[in-house]
Design goal:
alpha+beta; six-stranded antiparallel barrel; 7 helices; globular; disordered N terminus
Length: 364
């Protein structure tokens, strides 16, 4: 999300002020999972160019040679030094403050707090060289969704746009910090094609932020296995309503809040974001790196199945313009989202000749 620090808002701000007064010190607030810098690398004429094959002009064709190249490039050191497309400055919360926030959360005064866990096979991170954004690799969260080709990964639109200038781009399911791409538990999968609604613009506050989702087609791994055959998949599903029970998963980047770079999850109830065709949820701990993470309905941890009805994205890049880590948004999957999935599933160009109109857009 954004590259600036957030302001304190609502009950969180009140709680922090009370705490600061009680201990006689101030606090610099952590930044959220909001906007990113992906628009800096988006090509000219961006809202007129179908991105169905946006990577092919920069990356070698898929196949064994590509896998060998990516395996050699993505050493453990390179992956450990990666920065997410939505990275922002953060600070470590003091232990006393953390306990205070936890007590307020349990009492229902503050939102829930995301919990670190070992992750799930079908949710992981993207890595790419990120040129020209600081010359460092970047990543967002993505999730494998069922498709005919068994090779589609769902993420945010603003994350996918960051891949358009990449020379090295891979998806790593169930990413484990400290290991090279070759040593990851479920392998790595080179990105080959992007599917983004051409009407979407990164980090805008306009209505087209409703379209902040994308699909990335990935190649088979170095053992010639497709990602869905290895990890399983979630089922891409239209959002049934604005109020849903969901499990939201993502990978916060900063070592200040996630020193082991583990995934986080939060079980929450969603509601409508006024003024947009989007949902919102409140849960502390969704910092930079979680963009694109799935909102899963009916998740079964034993069978590792569920319906993905949203993803971290929308409004100003997954969060609000105050950059609050406890407020996160998702597009509402209606006809536009279903059409994008259908194009990606069929492997065809994404063409949208008509302007986006949220008033007349079909959500059923």
């Amino acid at each position: 999300m954004a590259v600036r620090r957030k302001k304190l808002v609502g009950a969180v701000g009140f709680a922090l002020c009370v705490y600061a007064l009680s201990v006689g010190q101030g606090l610099v607030a952590p930044a959220s999972a909001g906007q990113d810098a992906s628009e800096l690398v988006r090509p000219a004429g961006r809202d007129k160019v179908p991105l169905v094959s946006g990577l092919l002009g920069h990356l070698p064709l898929p196949g064994p040679a590509r896998n060998r190249q990516e395996k050699a490039y993505w050493t453990a050191q390179r992956m450990d030094e990666a920065l997410p497309v939505d990275v922002a400055g953060v600070v470590r919360l003091g232990s006393a403050l953390s306990k205070t926030l936890e007590q307020l959360s349990l009492a229902g005064v503050l939102p829930r707090t995301a919990e670190h866990f070992e992750g799930v096979p079908m949710v992981g991170t993207f890595f790419y060289d990120g040129s020209p954004v600081s010359g460092k690799a970047t990543y967002c969260t993505g999730s494998v969704v069922h498709s005919n080709g068994r090779s589609l990964v769902l993420t945010a639109g603003h994350c996918a746009l960051g891949l358009t200038h990449a020379r090295h781009a891979i998806f790593v399911p169930d990413y484990h910090f400290g290991y090279s791409a070759a040593a990851q538990p479920y392998g790595f999968y080179p990105a080959t094609h992007l599917f983004v609604d051409p009407r979407y613009r990164a980090n805008t506050k306009q209505a087209v932020s409703d379209l902040d989702l994308a699909f990335v087609q990935v190649d088979a791994n170095d053992k010639r296995k497709r990602v869905e055959d290895v990890t399983g998949a979630l089922t891409f599903t239209r959002t049934p309503r604005y109020n849903n029970h969901v499990t939201v998963i993502g990978y916060p980047y900063s070592a200040a809040v996630n020193p082991a770079h583990k995934a986080v999850h939060c079980d929450v109830v969603t509601r409508k974001l006024l003024g947009f065709r989007q949902m919102q949820m409140e849960c502390n701990g969704f910092y930079g790196g979680v963009s694109g993470g799935p909102w899963i309905s009916g998740y079964n941890p034993s069978a590792q199945t569920g319906n993905v009805i949203g993803n971290v994205g929308g409004y100003n890049g997954g969060g609000n313009d105050a950059n609050a880590d406890n407020v996160t948004y998702s597009p509402f999957y209606g006809k536009d989202a279903q059409d994008l999935y259908n194009d990606a599933n069929a492997g065809r160009a994404v063409l949208r000749p008509h302007a986006y109109n949220p008033v007349t857009a079909t959500t059923g």
